[in-house]
């Protein structure tokens, strides 16, 4: 065991007695489900079913959706498997319970202390552990490997900050990542970093989330009665940050009079800045939470609610995705809006999705904009992607899943004899 891993194990072990208290405090603040604290502590868990078991672990809803898709793809390879899913967020818990609660075992992930990790692995004894993106928990990994479990990291994705952090502890990083029997990177930056850390070539087949791309039929624009009548053109600013707000509001000056703007902030703390910006520009505005029914003269509609972004993606004529207009945030995943077959605009600083952004730009599914004039000019093109672009997009979506299945296939345990 390296000094860094030993230090982590010692520090996390010292926190063990305080975990129940910390979880109770989080529960009181609404950040934990009080009825599921036993799962965080890996105590009083439901019985493990007999037979072989694959454990899928992701942090939040996006990773869990990816793992759900992967588990379905593995069904043809290993039909007699039991599947256990663990996750960190209550939002993921709700969606997984709704979608696969009747066919899979679902648990909140245990805290990564040595004792909780050991209890979790001793109870579930998974045959194969599959971790998604950046979910690296040293104590859980150590317990799984000590128990003889195979481990794989799929769709690995690191920011520059996390890469620098791992490189500060090179021997610990090598021990942790080299222990994975299979690693697949979502982007070349991560693949290069993991190749350097592990001393082996790490495959980079592309972002596995591409495989979740199921393009919805354009159909007819949904027409919520509280929104504008036919004849308006709607520009959506999705997952926008402070740096996006002024550009989008200024873009209205360069757009036809019938254009309306829906602004869906990434964080609700940005709502006041949107209101102030609209007021200063002289545009009439309304908030979804306060004025669900608006007048035809309302120019800016502030979508200050959670869970409705898909509705706005479908409703909008043109989509601008925030978080990349200036350095620092790194952009957001463009695949969700692409589901609706519409070209997506975003800024030039898509460092979190650099490879994906490059490929999407190459085939014409993504446009890079920087100024209000750029945004307005981009809306002059047809809103929907051509059939040729959609076909190339769907071709791109197949490769990551095929490579992931090929890497996992040798790790699947032998099928139970009948």
Chain-wise SSE layout:
Elements (H helix, E strand, L loop, with lengths): L2 H13 L3 H10 L8 H5 L11 E5 L3 H14 L7 E6 L2 H11 L4 E4 L5 H11 L3 E5 L5 H9 L3 E7 L3 H8 L2 H9 L3 E4 L2 H11 L34 E8 L1 H10 L7 E7 L5 H11 L3 E3 L12 E3 L6 H7 L2 E4 L13 H4 L5 E3 L7 H10 L2 E3 L3 H7 L8 H22 L10
Parallel strand pairs: 1-2, 1-4, 2-3, 4-5, 5-6, 7-8, 7-11, 8-10, 9-10, 11-12, 12-13
Number of helices: 17
Radius of gyration: 23 Å
Compute the number of strand runs. Answer: 13
Q: What's the end-to-end separation, in Å?
A: 41 Å
Mean pLDDT across the residues is 89
Question: What does the overall shape look like?
Answer: globular
Question: Can you list the strand order of the major beta sheet?
Answer: 9-10-8-7-11-12-13
Beta-strand content estimate: 5-15%
Helical fraction equals 40-55%
Summarize the structure in words.
This protein has 418 residues and is α/β, with parallel strands linked by helices. Helices cover 41% and strands 15% of the residues. The chain has a seven-stranded parallel β-sheet with strand order 9-10-8-7-11-12-13, sandwiched between helices. A six-stranded parallel β-sheet has the order 3-2-1-4-5-6, with helices on both faces. The longest helix is centred in the C-terminal third of the chain and has 22 residues, at 387-408. The radius of gyration is 23 Å and the shape is globular. The two termini are 41 Å apart. The mean pLDDT is 89.
